[in-house]
Structures are given as C-alpha cells and as structure tokens.
Amino acid sequence: MKPPAIVILGAGALATARRIQRAFEGAQVHALQGRVDADVAYTELGAHLRDLYARGTPIVALCAAGIVIRCIATMLADKGAEPPVLAVAEDGSAVVPLLGGLAGVNVMAREIAATLAVAPAITTSGELRFGTCVLNPPEGYALADIGQGKRFVSDLLAGESTRIEGDAPWLDDAALPRSASARLAIRVTPRAWDGHEDELVIHPRSVVVAVAGSHTCADGDELSTRVLKALDAHGLAALSLAALLAPTGRMTDPALAGAAARLNVPLRFAAQTVDHEANAPDLLHAALRVPYETLQNHADDALELALALAPLAIDPATIGQARGRLTVIGLGPGHRDLLAPAARRALDEATDLLGYTTYVEMAGPLRADQRVHGTDNREEMQRARHAFELASTGRSVVMVSSGDPGVFAMAAAVLEALEHAANPAWDAVDLSIVPGISAAMATAALAGAPLGHDFCMLSLSDNLKPWSIIETRLRHAAEADLAMAFYNPISRARPWQLDKALDIVRQFRSPATTVVLGRDVGRPGGTLRSLTLGELNSSDVDMRTMVIIGSSTTRRFARSGASGDAHDAHAADGAAWVYTPRSYPA
Q: Which domain holds residue 559?
C-alpha cells in the first residue's frame, strides 16, 4: 500500500497529524498553503483530495467526515478500486473509516486508533464480528469473485460456521466461527473456482509463466490468450498468475508488454547471463528463488510456455528483473497545478530521480524510499548516462527538467547519450518523454497571447554554441518579423550579451514594439511586466527572466478587473493584455 497523505486544514491539527505520520513510513502531512508549514502545500482542499483519490493515495483527513465526502463524492464509482479514506478528529479523539473496505481502510483505522489511544469507529459488520475483512486478503492473494464473497460473509453473519482449506496465516487470529464439518469453506488455492456457492475462494499468486522460443506473437491479445489456455489446461485460475517471465533479449517485444497488461501481471526478465536461446524451464530455473513445480510445457509454432507452480504466493520483485524505465519530464513553470498528470504519475512511480538539484527539489514531495541523484546544472551528458545505467538494471528512473524537457532541457541530452552509446542494454530501456509547459508558454499565457502568431525561441547562452550563431539567428528572426522568446538572457558570466542582442533586434523593430518580461512565472514571488522595446534595459532582466519581444503586429491594451490567482505572477505595470493577432496586415 502507498504511504497515506495526512491532510489538515489548520495549525490545530498539526500535532495529531505528526503523531499519525510516525505510524506510516513515507507518510507526509499536507496542509493548506499559507496556513501551516507542513511537508506538502495545497491551495484548494476539494481539488487536492480528488487528485489524491484519483492517484490511489490513501487519505487521512483531519476534518469533519462530511467535508471529505462532499469533496470526493463525484468520484465514487468502483468500490473495488477505491483507496482507503479516513476522517480523524483534529484532537485525535475519533478515527472514522469512510471508504476502501476492500483496500484495508479498517486495518489503517485500527493502526491510527492505536497510535492515538482511542477506539476506531468501525461500522463494517464483518469487521466488527470477526476482527478482519475476509474479503480483503493480503498482497499476493486475490479474491475469486467479490459477489460470491459478499454472499459468503452474509451467511457467516447469519450464523453459519466455516472451515479453512489451504494456507491462510492472516486468518489465524480472526474470530471466525470455525468447524471442521462446516458447510462453508474458505479455500486458498491456485485452482480455478468451480462455482460452488458454499466456498469463498482466494487465489495465491503462485504461478509464473515463462515465455521462450523463436516465435513472436502478433500482439498481446494472441499471447495472453495462449497463456490463459495453458493455465486452463492445468485447471489454474488466471488470478493465480504472479508474473510473465521472458529472456532479456525480448525486453522490447510489444506482444509481451501487451500480454502482461491484459493479464494485469508484472513482466519480468531472466538475468543477462541466461542465453537468449534458453528454453522456458531454463528461464524459470534462472529467475525463481523459491521451490516450485514445473508443469507440462506448451509449445506451438516455436512458441514455448512453461508454468511454475509454487506452494505460496510469489513476490514478483524477486523474479529476475523488470524492464527499466526512463521518463524525461518537465515540471512546467513550477506551480503544482501546471504539472502534467503524466509527469506526476512518473514521479510517484519512480525509484530514482535525476536532475539539477534545484529542479529535483521542486519535484517533491518525494517518498523516503526514492533515491535522489542531484547534480550541477552543467553536467547534462554525465547525468543522462547515469540515468541509463540505473534504468538498465530494471529501475524506474525520472529525469527532471524545468519547463518542457524538449526545450533547452534534458530530452535532447538523453537522446544524444542513447544514440552515441550503442549499448543494447540502454536500447532496451523503456524511454518516454513527457511534455511540460515551457517558460515561454507560461509567460505568454499570463500576459495573454504574445506568441499568437509565428514565433521562435532562442537561448542567448553561448555555453553550447558560438555567439556568432546566436547573432545570425537573431538577425534573421528579427528581419522575418517573428515574435521572439529569449531563454538564458543574461548572467554574471555574460552580462553584455542581452544588450548586444537588443542592438540587433532594434535594427529591425521600432522602439514601440511590445515586450513582456516574466520572472519566476508560476513560482512564489513571480512577476510579470509589459513595456516597449525602447524602454527595455538589460538591468530589467536576470537569468530567471523570460523575455518575449513582440512582432510588428503585437498589441497591448488595458485589461479591466485583472487579478492573479495562486499561480499567477503579479503584474508590475498593473493591467495589460498583450497579444499578436493571427491575421497579418495585407
């Protein structure tokens, strides 16, 4: 289970939140921005709770239960997919589980209540009677049929007794009415449920299917169908499948990834030392660290499947290695509301984060088990190579950039490292690039639409290209009447370059040309200012300023009732909309 988010509204709940936090490794306290100094700041409770819920994060909210229910009511649909949600009194006097009965909410309620030395307000009949949720087996086990499970618990509550067949140590201390001759039975077995209504069947995920051979399936559907047929041939339930296993040489096979996704199991790979032509039993022997029984091989059209059946549930993390992932993300301008959901998911799932230390710190909150590899901003290629080395061992790595990773950021460095390495292990890494909101786009949106027509983005830094190239591009862009966005406009090491760039631009633009300056847009203390090219001085700009110079058609007019929200910069000149019309004068 993920560490919970402990959400508070005011300072009065902080002491209780910290007590709860100590009971859950990796838990963080989330507080309303500006009210409390906590681990994570949020700006609006409802939106924040809905975001946590959608990401499957357990929620411990220190506020009235009704507030929590109203905030997430629109998201309640699938009981089987909801994370634990609890309401706790600010003073710790009450612990109320609200949602997530099948995800362990009552277990969490008991743990929190024990920490606070109070009784949990558990209302689930089965939990109260038996001291456990029979329909919520531990990780590594799956309930065969939730509908049948509910009927089974109803029968128990009506006075029936049960017997337990199979290994279910988590039920040893449960107060279940037991009888060796009971009509009802809790069966823990990898065998498929035969539909008997007097059984509650729980499947241990104790089967691994190894895939080998020279044949490549057309797609995931074909391969998953063959795997299901192999399980069925041995009378095994699909829910007993713990993982698919394949040789490392097939890490990039889309049919394998598709089949694992359709079967909802991890895809693992035997060690590099295993011959890529090894048969399926050899793969099992190399990758499994527990006793198992090898079931009959299934070979068809040079596709070979071998099944391993273990006596207990298998932790997939102990089988071979995963295919490593490297996700290059952009944080956007800095405010959490402007971070792409795909980037947030990548951060949540990462084992390792790399990037310029300042940007990695902005990517938080991070879990205690996530490894951070912060570096200086100039070490791009070294950072990219390190990311591939980590990912090639099966880790889930995120490379962090600000803005958009493909705009003067790490995406290009990562691809350059990959191209020049010619390393098969790096080629097998699942590489993806998640776009972000660039500084130019964030500044432009706050100002209005100064980049509404043709435009270009230019970096004035000559660290990676000669200044002569920059001058040539400036001259052509200015002559072409493109709106221009300047990145890295000035620094202590090169204080003269912005003035030189403006001298070039002024040869082709009138002094009345509109200019927008956005400093730290999307971050605390951000500012926005619009002025003219004639008024612009290099002293108005620093390295954290985005400079947008309009074209000859860019316009500026007063806005009425302008006000900034939580992620807006405050306009220094107070009230101007800036835009470049999409039509051009005839």
A: 441-579
